[in-house]
Amino acid sequence: MCPMQVEHIADQLEPVACHVEPVAGQVEPVANQLEPVTGQIEPVAGQVDPVAWQVEPVANQVEQDTLERTELSQITVVAQRANREVLPVQRMTGEVLQKMSLFSVADAIRYFSGAQIKDYGGAGGLKTVNVRSMGSHHVGIFYDGLEIGNAQNGVVDLGRFSLENMETVSLYNGQKSAIFQTAKDFASSSAVYFTSREPRFVGDKRHNFNVGMKGGSMGMVNPSFLWEHKLGNNVSLSVNTEFLYTSGRYKFTYTNRFGYDTTAYRQNGDVRTFRAEVGLFGKVKEGDWRAKVYFYDSERGYPGAVVREEPGKFKHADRQWDDSFFVQGYLRRSVGKRYSFQINGKYAYDYLHYLADPNVDVTAMYVNNKYRQHELYTSLAHLFNISPALNISLANDFQWNKLFADVKDFVYPQRFTLLTALAASLKVGGLSLQGSLLYSYVKDKTEGRGTNAGDKNNISPSVVLSWRPFIEHNLNFRAFYKRAHRMPTFNDLYYTEIGNKYLAPERTTQYDVGIFWSITRGEGWFKSFSLQADAYYNTVTDKIVAMPTSSQFRWSMMNIGKVKIKGLEASGNLVSRWGNVDCSLRLSYTYQDARDYTDPQSEWYKGLIAYIPLHSGTAVVTLNYKEWQLHYSFIYTGEKFDSSANIQSNMLDSWTTHDIALSKEFGIAGNLLRATLELNNITNTQYEVVRCYPMPGLNFKLKVNYLF
């Protein structure tokens, strides 16, 4: 069975031999079901420099339940309600996402403590995120407020999401602190939120244009275009398009079986993508609305694994084509002072074509499969302001998924999902308490062979506590407990000769205690400092893993896995000013001890989970001088095993990377031209995030944006 065939088991089990190719449809780039929701861009308590901090560890962040705007002499004022953020959150905001050496949102998430990115190499390689070692399937990925779904295999390929139109990237442990949200927001063990840019206009200006061009190593060409138009006082339009091509061909070095260093080139890593978004943004009395149409088209090669014993034997010529389309909208309003409601809805269609042709690569098994997914989603959420100290929310979601494929004996599964979340928030003095209860009901229908998995229902509680002992000091203590589950995917249940319709949902339990402290001063060289740290203990039970049956070529999915995770995360921010130079420094450190408790009889019982290093850390330094800006970033990943068999031959060495980005802004006839030069992996480190998938060495990008 191929490691990409059931991708989520790679987080917990030993990967298969490096020469095995991905199976069609199992490595499916995620349907880009994006849904905008207000309130996702929240200012950080105590952060006085909006440019300085790339990643903001927010503990006392203001969370808005409604977004109120008032027109005063053509100046838009955005006001936030004082609901405190009580759960750990990290965030990259603003233009920093454009100025750092970041290619996709996966690159941004690398700088968050507690998150691991599994990168299968090159721009065309799969990139998934694992938070606190619970597995990729337990991370909810939300774009503009709605979760990105993939009922087929649940794998979210972060490499598909550009930063060109991104306002913020945030990582929440547990869930968002705001109780006024969809029921799906309560469903994941952790969540990553992407928020796209909303039009803003200065003075009498009615148009904003941003024309960009990026080029660099590996033949990369990446033009982009953004047009924002003010249709009226209460309505604006945004049109954003982007094209990307890269050959994905880069040089790497490895040691062959004779002990000599060998230089080779990554093959079949080319990518061509086109993305277009059209959004409408509006304001109504005591509320706002948003609508969006999205289209994505791509063709890519999968570069495959590098087999050192027989270099060049495997050509890795597999190809994949994707099309994604969705239309969505939401309305959010307050009715009086005591009640608010929010309506979300979307329809999404996704098409995938996967081809492995032995006429091109004699080692490949012929696969020529096409998959089509349909999704309907709607949500209605209510917020009741019982008193200034007590709020209660109720959210109901409905989702329908159907999968079509031209595969023999395919069962054409459908899934009907109902979610109901009841939550309350209480604030008394410096004490904040939140609790939620999520009920989920899932019903599957299938056609053809066998029967379906039947009906499933679960109840998932969570409790969150935050205490600020001194009003005059920004010092907070916090803790949370949460239980969550994730449903088996269509592939887990129904994949031909592999799926197991009797699977139970995976279950997670999380415990967390933490502290946040910040100081802000407006004068002198010292501007602000913040520090946060969290200790946590997580368990994953009924883990869905792939087990061999009577034949090594015929595997089956089973609920036998159990994982226990202990960890510590810490990060600190310092903002200062020396003369005309603004300086910022961020450091983060993660310790994770994730062990396999599946089989007490196994030789590897209590072994470290594959691809989870015990130690990792990042550093980001930013210097601003007039129109110049310099970013330096550093990533360290400690030693880790590529298997639960913790032996020396399965160990991957630690590695570090260093990136630099230098940018300058030029004023041209009242408009702005920004030029950025990025140098990535400046020490040309040869490393692998996943065994046999080498990463690029030294590479560069040159980016130019003209804003008018």
Structure write-up:
It contains three helices and 40 strands. By secondary structure, it is an all-beta fold. It has a 22-stranded antiparallel β-barrel. It is globular, with a radius of gyration of 25 Å.
> Overall 3D geometry?
globular
DSSP summary, beta strand count: 40
Strand content: over 45%
Distance between the termini: 53 Å
Low-confidence stretches: 1-83
Radius of gyration: 25 Å
Count of alpha and pi helical runs: 3
Largest sheet: 22 strands, antiparallel, barrel
* Broad structural category: mainly beta
What percent of residues adopt helix (DSSP H or I)?
Answer: under 10%
State mean pLDDT (0 to 100 scale).
81
Layout of helices and strands:
Elements lengths: L61 E2 L4 E5 L2 E5 L3 E2 L4 E5 L2 H4 L5 H5 L5 E5 L7 E5 L7 E5 L2 E2 L18 E8 L16 E7 L10 E10 L3 E11 L4 E12 L4 E5 L5 E5 L5 E14 L2 E15 L17 E17 L3 E18 L10 E19 L4 E16 L8 E15 L2 E15 L9 E13 L6 E13 L3 H5 L11 E15 L5 E26 L2 E25 L2 E16 L10 E2 L6 E11 L2 E10 L2 E2 L9 E2 L2 E14 L2 E10 L7 E3 L2 E2 L4 E9 L1
Parallel strand pairs: 8-11
Antiparallel strand pairs: 1-4, 2-3, 5-10, 6-7, 8-9, 10-11, 12-13, 12-40, 13-14, 14-17, 15-16, 17-18, 18-19, 19-20, 20-21, 21-22, 22-23, 23-24, 24-25, 25-26, 26-27, 27-28, 28-29, 29-30, 30-31, 30-32, 32-33, 33-36, 34-35, 36-37, 37-40, 38-39
